[in-house]
Amino acid sequence: EYMDRRCVYYRKPLVDSGTLGTKASVQVVVPHVTESYSSTRDPPDPSIPMCLLHNFPNLIEHTIQWARDNFAGLFTIPAQQAEEYQREPKEFLQRVSKNNSAYDRNEITENVKRSLGQDRPKDFLDCIKWARSLFEKQFHNTIAQLLYNFPEDHVTTAGERFWSRNKRCPHVLHFDVNNKTHLDFIVAASNLLAYIYHIEQLRDNEYIAAEVAKIQVPEFQPKVGVTIFENDEQLKNDMEQRRRKNSLVDKESNEDCRINEMLSHLPKHDEISSIKIRPHEFEKDDDSNFHIDYIAATANLRAENYEISPADRGKIKRIAGNIIPAIATTTAMVTGLVCLEVYKFIQGHKNIESYKNAFVNLALPFFGFSEPVPPRKQKYLDHEYTLWDRFDVQGDLTLEEFIDHFKREHKLVVTMLSTGLCLLFNPHFMRQPSRANDMKRRISEIYETVTDAKIPTHVRSLALDMTCEDLDGNDIDDVPYIRYTFR
């Protein structure tokens, strides 16, 4: 999108192309002739329903996606949040309080507390104990709770068997140190946790197997009253009710109260400032970092829970890393289509009928060509314009000169002027002495004052936005942006 914004600003053509295995597409963007790249958006990729992913998987792709999300939820997000709290506690809490619901604030608080609390690992043996507890939680206890809520012979209110159709009835796993996948999970999980806390990693499988065999875990006791959603509709309804409840809670408390509530559950900053912590950034191409090892073991263990055929490491790496092999013939073909559109622009074609967007799938085979979409036309006063049009203002004018220019040349009265998130002029929020003073200042000077930064010497122009009225005082909804060239 950055490239698209630059092409619109400088009025340059763009020929965008992409490949996805045997699929390919070409989009042509020509100034004043077609819409821009960002004018339309691709539909979002279809996602796996949450309840299917969390409770009722039936394909290996479901367990791989669950394992990928599980990796982020254990080894990336909590450590990132704890690191932010360590680095700038005040700003972190203000940001969390402002941008999150009560439910999310509690979850973030628990993540930080768990990451920096007394239960954090002190040595590699602690990491092994944590990994063993994680195995029990994910592949035994969670499944046992699911079967407690929905036994194998459970019948729905409609009289149908609950575990039927796409719902596979799972079974719990009992840890076996002699099972390679079980041990692979312990090795990967313990080493991933050790990395987070700067504990020396250990790759001796025999030592880890000997230590994990000594660990005793508590016997599972099912919890009464646990709600497990059967479908995404139930989940959405619950989230909506929770959102309403959270909004009421937030209305009854101010930001200071919310921050103090979080602080009461978090360790004091002085106590945790010396703790070294770092999150994992998922990297699929490094076979020594245990990332794919963990996801492969986790995906196949969950597949074993639901009696889904396991996948080899290569397939899991390809799906988890979203790797789609490039095909030379697709690349060659799309390159040729791009060159054809470039030749047309060089030859000076101005008619939209001359250009063609392309959509191709060599596997079918399918070759589709269509005319690009023209830019959407808008109107102010009696003037039509598109996203390619703008007001060009030359010279470093004072604010008063700038306003007079638009009143004289375009019959527009400027009521607000901004660039990006910086407000340069708004008479309703300015005291009279300040307003009179700013009217005599150059816009570049006002910009430097507002942003508290010098404009770099290589920058010759600014993109300004304005709201305005006509000479009779009527609001005008939309006008083109302004290219203000002051150097």
From TrEMBL:
It comes from the Eukaryota. InterPro entries: ThiF/MoeB/HesA, ThiF_NAD_FAD-bd, Ub-activating_enz_E1_C, UBA_E1_C_sf, UBA_E1_SCCH, Ubi_acti_E1_SCCH, Ubiquitin-activating_enz. Gene3D superfamilies: Ubiquitin-activating enzyme E1, SCCH domain (1.10.10.2660), Ubiquitin-activating enzyme E1, UFD domain (3.10.290.60). It holds the Pfam family E1_UFD. Pathway: Protein modification; protein ubiquitination. GO terms for cellular component: cytoplasm; nucleus. Keywords: Ligase. Residues 355-482 form the Ubiquitin-activating enzyme E1 C-terminal domain. SMART domains: UBA_e1_C. One of its GO terms (biological process) is DNA damage response. One of its GO terms (molecular function) is ubiquitin activating enzyme activity. Belongs to the ubiquitin-activating E1 family. This is Ubiquitin-activating enzyme E1 C-terminal domain-containing protein. It comes from Rotaria magnacalcarata.
